[in-house]
Amino acid sequence: MSIVKINALTVPDEQRELLEQRFASRAGAVEGSDGFEWFELLRPIEGTDQYLVYTRWRSEEDFQAWMEGPMKAAHQGGGGAGGAAGERPKPAASGSQVWSFEVVQQAAPKKA
Prior knowledge:
The chain is about 20% helix and about 30% strand. Mean pLDDT is about 85; it is low at about 80-85. The two termini are about 25 Å apart. By secondary structure, it is α+β, with helices and mostly antiparallel strands. The chain is built from two helices and four strands.
């Protein structure tokens, strides 16, 4: 079965809009990556300042290939939104933890 990677990003209130804008304007390379199955950016409603970045992959190997290829390339260098040419923009998050899970059970809505 699939694997899930959740990146828990600590985002101060004043950085929330910037974080969401950066995800909205991302290159989209993950969607074309081999083994990629799903992405969601989850905004906290109450009780936490952590956004969750949920991705689902066919295998750990597919995730690692994306990490070492497209993701690494997208996060190196500079000139993107919020930074001058050759300069990397300041992160919107003040902290990050990556959680890994294997999907052992799943269900979909029943068809009527």
